[in-house]
Design goal:
CATH superfamily: Alpha-ketoglutarate-dependent dioxygenase AlkB-like
Order of helices and strands: HEHEEEEHEEEEEEHEE
Helix content: 10-25%
CATH topology: Jelly Rolls
Strand order of the largest sheet: 1-11-8-13-6-3-2
Number of strands: 13
CATH class: Mainly Beta
Largest sheet: 7 strands, antiparallel
Mean pLDDT: 90
CATH architecture: Sandwich
Shape: globular
Radius of gyration: 16 Å
Number of domains: 1
Distance between the termini: 29 Å
Length: about 190
């Protein structure tokens, strides 16, 4: 893990980790087939509809009701991948929510933070690279950082990268898929 972190300059968001070649090209091809076969729907943000298409499993956030709702069970074909992500995250990692996303050419995602119901966020990049951008306000200026996520790579956001920094993806230049894995926040505090 230390070798991977040494690749980042000092301005990288705290808690951001990156693993290149997390999965094989063969598994990537299989996962793209599985995700593209899902009943993907345009992302719903209240009354607005996003251009990316998604499928949520385990839980989903309902923007109209502003709360988590049950979703379809996590598909069994994701079990081996979830085990690998949980091993990467460490002994206390338990994935509770999965989001599969399809980005067509020209589609991205605007600046945001994931909902506070979730704790650590793991993202598996499939199909094409993308610029995973981070920003946080420092005084009257924005501090920015860009992580170039390669196909088959996994990032993990925790700590500052998860709670203080916003993130976005500019419009992609080639079709891209992602599988996002989320753990739940400790609601006792």
């Amino acid at each position: 893990m230390t070798g991977q972190l040494a690749l980042f300059p000092e301005d990288r968001p705290g808690g951001l980790q990156y693993a290149a070649e997390f999965i094989s090209p063969v598994l990537e091809h299989e996962l793209i087939g599985q995700v593209s076969a899902l009943p993907l729907q345009p992302f719903q943000f209240g009354a607005f509809e996003g251009k990316r298409r998604v499928a949520s499993f385990g839980l989903r956030y309902d923007y109209t009701l502003q709360r988590l709702r049950p979703a379809e069970p996590i598909p069994r074909w994701l079990d081996p991948l979830i085990e690998k992500v949980e091993a990467y995250g460490g002994p206390s990692t338990q994935i509770a929510q999965v989001l599969c996303t399809e980005y067509e050419v020209g589609v991205g995602i605007g600046w945001h933070r994931d909902k506070p119901h979730f704790d650590r966020i793991f993202g598996l990049s499939l199909g094409s690279p993308c610029k995973f951008r981070f920003r946080r306000e420092v005084g009257e200026k924005w501090q920015r950082y860009t992580l170039k996520t390669a196909p088959r790579s996994l990032y993990m956001m925790s700590g500052e990268s998860r709670r203080i920094w916003e993130h976005s993806i500019p419009a992609v230049e080639a079709p891209r898929y992602s599988i996002t894995f989320r753990t739940m926040a400790d609601r006792k505090s």
